[in-house]
């Protein structure tokens, strides 16, 4: 009876050890790929880098006195920037995109800006 319990305990320990070993192995390639990708100077990687790039793009837009940046949303992910929201004039749509493209670290840009329609106007 004791030998059966000992055998069950040994099998259980082997299963636990195998699971822990497999878990440790699956996390190694992820950290290696992050390390390899973070060596690239053209595309920022990680939440901090995404937030920093987003702030840099937004600040570059906000420096322009004739553009109301309060209605513009900036999303950055690994160097890809998406602009959305509204601007007051059609000419500002392209201008805001060019400002965003000029920020170091921006690798691609999706421009979803639209022209703000005045209240009561059609």
Written description of the protein model:
The longest helix has 37 residues, at 2-38. This protein has helices spanning 2-38, 47-62, 90-101; strands spanning 72-77, 80-87, 108-115. It folds into two domains: 1-39; 47-115, 2-Layer Sandwich (Histidine-containing Protein, Chain: A), CATH 3.30.1340. The chain is built from three helices and three strands. Helices cover 53% and strands 18% of the residues. It is an alpha+beta fold and 122 residues long. The chain has a three-stranded mixed β-sheet. It holds the Pfam family BON.
Count of individual domains: 2
Give the overall shape, derived from the CA principal axes.
rod-shaped
CATH architecture descriptor text of the largest domain = 2-Layer Sandwich
CATH class of the largest domain reads: Alpha Beta
- Structural class of the secondary structure composition? alpha+beta
CATH topology of the largest domain: Histidine-containing Protein, Chain: A
User: Please, what is the average pLDDT?
Assistant: 78
The value of Rg in angstroms is: 26 Å
Trace the largest sheet across and list its strands. 1-2-3
User: First CA to last CA: what distance?
Assistant: 87 Å
Helix content: 40-55%
Count of β-strands: 3
Q: Determine the strand fraction and express it as a percent band.
A: 15-25%
What ranges have pLDDT less than 50 throughout 5 or more consecutive residues? 22-40
């Amino acid at each position: 009876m004791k030998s059966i319990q000992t055998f069950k305990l040994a099998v259980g320990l082997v299963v636990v050890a195998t699971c822990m070993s497999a878990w440790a192995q699956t996390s190694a390639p992820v950290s290696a790929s992050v390390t390899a990708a973070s060596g690239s100077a053209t595309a920022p990687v990680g939440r901090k880098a995404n937030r920093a790039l987003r702030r840099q793009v937004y600040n570059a837009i906000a420096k322009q006195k004739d553009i109301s940046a309060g209605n513009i949303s900036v999303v950055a992910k690994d160097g890809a920037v998406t602009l959305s929201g509204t601007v007051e004039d059609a000419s500002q749509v392209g201008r805001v995109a060019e400002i965003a493209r000029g920020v170091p670290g921006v690798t691609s840009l999706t421009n979803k800006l639209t022209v703000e329609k005045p209240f009561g106007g059609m």
